Amino acid sequence: MPIALVWFRSDLRLADNPALHAALEAGFDPVPVYIHAPHEEGRWAPGAASNAWRHRSLKALDLALRQRGSRLLVRRGDSAMVLQQLIEQSRAQALFWNRKYEPATQPRDAAIKQALKQRHVQVRSCNAALLAEPWDVQTRTGEPYKVFTAFYRNVMAGLAQRALQDAPEALPAVPSALKGEGIDALGLAPALNWDAGFWEIWQAGEAGAHQALEVFVEGALRGYLDQRDLPDRIGTSRLSPHLHFGEIAPWRVIARLQAQRGVSLDRDIDGFIRQLVWREFAHHLLHHFPHTAQQNLNPRFDRFDWASTAPGPLQAWQHGRTGVPIVDAGMRELWQTGMMHNRVRMIVASYLTKHLRVHWLEGARWFWQTLVDADLANNTLGWQWVAGTGADAAPYFRVFNPVTQARKFDPQARYITRWVPELEALPVNARFAPWEFPQLCRGRACDYPHQPIVDLAQGRQAALAAYARTR
């Protein structure tokens, strides 16, 4: 049988993998390949938490391939050069891959495809990540969308369920002459095991993704819309890292949800699918406005008076020592688990960009290093949305009051207490703003900052004044 390379990137699964299945359907013996080339990601090479996840996900993929008679061939270097070497060594006649959509990788992939076609190598790219390609969704005038609601309606109007494809039961062996590196040699796993807390709640890999989907369907899906904003419980799907690394297809998620349709769940299913379309919107924006990974989409904010990035306030925010319990709880959850509840992400981002008036890029860079689901499109959209600088953004003058938010979404302070245990001896009503209750300082509570690093009212007023100067 002729050989085809199947180039794995952010599609670390065997089920619903269009490139793998296309190679098999075309009559090729697939050689699964992973090329480690972080230098080709531009300014957004994968962060530490992402690398820790990828390490485990690659091992899970390799194990799944070996169980079917194949293996993952791992190389490192410039992708174009490595692929050319592998084509020559294997005498492959074709190359299949699933598309990536980042600004740095799209032109690279296009150049590789053109160069190989000139050498008469069959090249095919597929969509393994999105419900709709970014270039297929446009306004009536042919322009990209900047408003989510209109984008959502367009996507849903054209949404068709794709056929599900189970993982192949067996695969051809990779020729023994083709040598690669061990996954451990890539240096993705942290040397000091600082990620140990991650794996108490996460299972990287395709099997973990399918298990997470079942746990969601059998649990948090019921009541999703009412509980997704409450950080003291598992009220969300926890599928985001699995989707980011391509361990599960979004259309399989939707198919599983649709199978649960019924009067009591329709509202929650529709609400979750809407969140999946927000993910689509993020990729749509990054494709059409690639500069937004580094720059404001709204140029008005190019003259905004951001505060100087003094290390003290930024580091206090990063390490959960701002003196604002809900903010500190979120940042500590992030450090220990590689994840932060979505409602709390908005609170901590608002606090950084509004109360501290630190440029959203500083927050985006920290999240990039510490989130296991760090996705350039979602990270960019989220930070620009909260900062008020992006598409369909919350207006800048919308400043979350972190104390009010905590009382509303964590009314028993369970989330705060879990991640800021210094405050557990205080009455519940004092845990939201302990500086208002100095007489209660006792025990470990005295080790917590006695005052926020910035007065909330003064920080809000300074942010609104800076905003007014841009008008």
TrEMBL record:
* Site description Electron transfer via tryptophanyl radical, residues in chain: 306, 360, 383
**Any GO BP annotation:** nucleobase-containing compound metabolic process
| Family designation | Belongs to the DNA photolyase family.
Please, which domain of life does this record's source organism belong to? Answer: Bacteria
Question: What's the protein name?
Answer: Deoxyribodipyrimidine photo-lyase
| SUPFAM superfamilies named in the record | Cryptochrome/photolyase FAD-binding domain, Cryptochrome/photolyase, N-terminal domain
Any GO molecular function: DNA binding
Where does this protein come from, organism-wise? Answer: Pseudoxanthomonas spadix (strain BD-a59)
Q: Which residues bind FAD?
A: 224, 236-240, 272, 373-375
Give residue ranges for domain Photolyase/cryptochrome alpha/beta: 2-131
- Tell me the keywords, alphabetical order: Chromophore, FAD, Flavoprotein
**What is written in the cofactor note of this entry?**
Binds 1 FAD per subunit.
Fetch the PROSITE patterns from UniProt: DNA_PHOTOLYASES_1_1, PHR_CRY_ALPHA_BETA
Query: Cofactor(s) for this protein?
Result: (6R)-5,10-methylene-5,6,7,8-tetrahydrofolate; FAD
